[in-house]
Amino acid sequence: MLGEILTAIVTPFRPDGSVNLERFRELAAHLVDHGSDGLVVAGTTGESPTLSDEEKLELFAAAVDAVGDRASVVAGTGTNDTAHSARLTAQAHELGVDGFLVVTPYYNTPPQRAIVRHFQEIAIVTDKPIVAYNIPSRAVITIEPETIAELAEIPNLRAVKQAHGDLEHARRIVDLGLDLYAGDDLLIFPFLGLGGLGGICVHTHVWGPQTKEMVRRYKDGDVEGARQLNDELAPAYDLLKVQTNPIAIKAALNLLGHELGGFRLPMVDPTEQELEQIRGCLERGGILSTASA
Description:
With 293 residues, this protein is of the alpha/beta class. 45% of the residues lie in helices and 13% in strands. It is built from 13 helices and 8 strands. An 8-stranded parallel beta barrel has the order 1-2-3-4-5-6-7-8, surrounded by 5 helices. Helix 2 links the parallel strand 2 and strand 3.
């Protein structure tokens, strides 16, 4: 539908803090050239909490223009305000994106029946695929399996990005006929064993080809070959543990010469110690040589 490996793309900023659309276009093309079947734009990795709607729409349009003819563009339009989410989804729909990532309403802690209403209201403004993003670590609440069964009745809710490791819960998503995407990068391999489609990833900014090859091997029946690649990706998974996303991945990309700028508060640059850890992960992963560091 939208692809196996989708990268939740970071948002580059200029020194004055404004969005750098030129760098964004360059990065989008680079990711599609290096293993990404599609991009999720203005997700948490893209610092969505500090982007205005106008900036998000500019990024959606830029992604469609830069890579829309050869990769899927998934717009991050979910917020904890249903009306706001529906309005942004409708606007993004008009720009020609291929689908939408809609997160569980965070902070409000709505009951399960309200989560269903939230997705229903958003789904009526578009006929394009919606991916429900279940991330209890950030949203505080979990979309329970019974609730996902109700969401599966929404015609264009086609997938779940599952960011917790309950394998039985994940298996039920597949059994419902929904596409299962790993929402934590290290869950891609175990989710493949359940019939998962792939992942909506962060580490694929740097390790995209390796991750795409891992999925290919698994689906071709070479489970041990896929397992070996997954083991080799340990430095990538370790990098994401250094500090809150997207601090580590954006710093890694800057170390690799992508010049994506800094962060908007409350995100901050890594400390020198954290930067050394990030550099170490890149070196262990064979991405950055000790000499170039």
